[in-house]
């Protein structure tokens, strides 16, 4: 039996099978299919409630298992600070280097080569510069609110790291640039709280003081951190 439901704008479809088993189980296949097995006689509404209750985990697993884009593949559009920009490539033999810029609501790449690998790397480098500048800009906004603020910022194209920080340096994944500014602010302030020894109730109090809607940002990050693709 095939069922589906909508979870915060994402349609989740799953196959329900009844078998002689003790409890409802949910499995995600390598192909991205959601299979649900329920004990014979279980109310369909009980099954639906169980699956809906696991929606955040299901979405996370679906995106975690999704094949990563090829290192030489370009996207039709790129997301920067939460907004989408259609990719436009302009080729000219007169150019000596690849230039990337925002122009007329598009991400424009002026290039002397048709190599998708080189173009993609230029886009990644552009994101690195933008993310580095944006993090430093947001740090200035919170500098007076904390005793310790890292002075260095490093941006990497490394899928094993999303964001980490200590007293001296912030290391961010280039894909942080995909996030809306309020999500970047949430990550920064949360890190600054930890660096300055604010934990548990003190951290929550500080977060509520600086970013009243931080719970929404936390939820967004949990749901979307595995969807950030460049």
TrEMBL record:
Residues 22-222 form the YgjP-like metallopeptidase domain. InterPro entries: UTP_pyrophosphatase-like, YgjP-like_metallopeptidase. This is YgjP-like metallopeptidase domain-containing protein.
